[in-house]
Write a structure and sequence with these properties.
alpha/beta, 8-stranded parallel beta barrel, 4-stranded antiparallel beta sheet, 12 helices
């Protein structure tokens, strides 16, 4: 297992020096964030980013993410150009020593929450989701936390209209087309793709979802059986769906060597959705101990990062991506892995 930490490059308020001080964190998970979706990342820019990270004593082996252009998800003729650009990005990242790319295939929104700062009884705050609040929104006049600056209302309405008649099966077919085109490049350059599950794992605003359950994943892996076609095992995203048995899924996909990257975090269920908690098992409804034990039992040796954290101790950072609670999460996860690994040896 390699413990990593998400870092939003130079625009991140958290420094590489601070990340380096978190015990057992070997590298950062990052990207070139200002290149328009679908365009090629300049190799020199990638190498410059890598050099800066390496000079801080950290590695850059995981990229999160190389976004997939909406035209690929929609299956438009222009996807031919965008998939060629994507393959070039894989090649350039491989030249910089990248081993794993986390990506998603969610239409329009790659995550949805209704509150970015839900206050807990201890005074911390975190991301939360309330389905009733989602249902009350006017789909033609959306204002969503975290997305207000990503799309104009005109752009958003256009995208939602583009997907209006798309079925889950059509989206799945477009994902399989994408994978069949890029996986040979991944095999050539030894870069593993790790698809991120839908967040949340159900349809929202009529948008189809295709990476929400074990059944979905089985279809994706069956259609493109290469081991380079793998999974980002995100406990928070998959766990939001009570229908997902996370320990069973960890057992199945770690055993198949499909889990190349793991986002480990906890959530607590409410009557109308969920909210994000501190990482330990007792803080939420996911059995983090059992999940990690299952990964270790199946000899998981991929990348891990503590996923969304709370804002604690007066910190007011990017929702989900403050320093303190994620650092605590990394230490907790390190302890779980070490304790379970040593107990199994005995």
């Amino acid at each position: 297992m390699k413990m990593t930490f998400r870092w939003y490059a130079d625009k991140d308020s958290i420094t590489l020096s601070q990340i380096k001080q978190i015990p057992n964190v070997s590298g950062v998970v990052t990207a070139v964030y200002d290149v328009p979706v679908g365009e090629i990342w300049d190799l020199n820019r990638i190498l410059t980013l890598k050099k800066k990270i390496n000079e801080s004593g950290l590695s850059m082996e995981v990229i999160e993410s190389v976004p997939v252009h909406e035209d690929i998800k929609l299956g438009l003729p222009s996807r031919e150009l965008y998939v060629q650009n994507y393959k070039k990005n894989i090649e350039n990242l491989a030249k910089a020593g990248v081993k794993c790319i986390c990506y998603n295939f969610m239409p329009v929104f790659d995550w949805l929450r209704t509150d970015l700062k839900r206050v807990a009884v201890d005074g911390s705050n975190s991301l939360s989701y309330n389905h009733d609040e989602i249902l009350k929104l006017d789909v033609h006049n959306l204002s969503l936390p975290g997305w207000d600056e990503s799309y104009s209302k005109f752009e958003l309405n256009g995208l939602l209209n583009d997907y209006k008649n798309m079925s889950k099966q059509q989206l799945l077919e477009n994902l399989i087309w994408f994978l069949k085109n890029i996986i040979p490049t991944c095999e050539e350059y030894d870069v593993k793709m790790a698809i991120h599950p839908d967040d949340p794992p159900w349809n929202v605003f009529g948008l189809p979802r295709t990476v929400s359950s074990s059944k979905d994943l089985d279809e994706i892996f069956s259609a493109v059986p290469s081991i380079y076609n793998g999974l980002t095992f995100c406990t928070g995203s998959l766990g939001a769906g009570k229908f997902n048995e996370l320990v069973s899924m960890a057992n199945k996909y770690a055993n198949q060597n499909r889990i190349h990257f793991a986002h480990l975090r906890n959530i607590a269920y409410t009557d109308k959705g969920f909210y994000e908690t501190a990482h330990p098992t007792e803080c939420g409804d996911l059995d983090m101990f059992a999940i990690v034990k299952t990964l270790v039992k199946n000899k998981f040796n991929g990348y891990v990062r503590p996923d969304h954290g709370r804002n604690i101790w007066g910190e007011n950072k990017k929702p989900g991506y403050g320093l303190y609670d994620r650092a605590l999460g990394a230490c907790y996860l390190n302890g779980l892995f070490e304790g379970i690994e040593k107990s199994m040896v005995k």
